[in-house]
Backbone:
C-alpha cells in the first residue's frame, strides 16, 4: 500500500534521516517535505484532491509552528480527519498537553539514533495500518522510548 506522508520539519538533517528511515521501513511511501507550517498549509489549501494519509510535524519551526498548523488543520473539515503525529525534541509537559488538546494523534520524542528512529517508525506504521492512530487516548498519546518498544521487520512491502 502506498502512503502519502507530509513531513513538516525545518531541519534538513532530520528530513534526510526521515527519508532514509522510510526507504528501509516503508519503501512504497511517498514523502513530501515542508520546511514550515506556512508551506504545509499552502499545499493543503491548494491541493485539489490529493491529501496526505499522514502528517508528521515538528513543533518548533519558523513562520508558522506545529501548534499553529495543527490548530488550522483541526479547524478545517477537509483536513481534520488526517492523522497528525508531533515529532519533536520537546518533552515539555505543556507541549504534550497542548498538542493533545489541539487534536494531534500521537506525540513522539525524536530519537537520538538511527536505529531508535527505525524502531519508532515501525511502531508508528503498525499503529497506522491497524487504525490505532485514530484512537486518541491521553494515556497512549506519548509514544514510549524506542528502548521499550517491540522490534518489527519491514512494513508495506
Residues:
Amino acid at each position: 500500500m502506498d502512503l502519502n506522508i507530509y513531513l513538516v520539519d525545518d531541519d534538513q538533517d532530520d528530513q534526510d534521516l526521515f527519508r532514509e528511515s522510510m526507504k528501509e521501513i516503508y519503501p512504497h511511501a511517498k514523502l513530501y517535505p515542508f520546511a514550515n507550517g506556512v508551506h504545509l498549509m499552502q499545499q493543503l489549501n491548494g491541493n485539489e484532491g490529493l491529501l496526505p494519509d499522514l502528517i508528521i510535524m515538528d513543533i518548533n519551526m519558523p513562520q508558522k509552528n506545529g501548534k499553529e498548523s495543527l490548530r488550522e488543520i483541526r479547524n478545517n473539515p477537509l483536513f481534520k480527519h488526517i492523522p497528525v503525529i508531533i515529532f519533536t525534541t520537546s518533552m515539555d509537559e505543556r507541549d504534550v498537553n497542548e498538542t493533545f488538546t489541539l487534536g494531534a494523534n500521537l506525540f513522539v520524542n525524536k530519537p537520538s539514533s538511527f536505529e531508535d528512529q527505525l524502531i519508532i517508525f515501525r511502531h508508528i506504521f503498525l499503529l497506522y495500518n491497524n487504525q490505532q492512530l485514530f484512537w486518541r487516548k491521553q494515556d497512549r498519546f506519548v509514544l514510549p522510548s524506542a528502548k521499550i518498544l517491540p522490534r518489527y521487520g519491514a512494513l508495506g512491502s
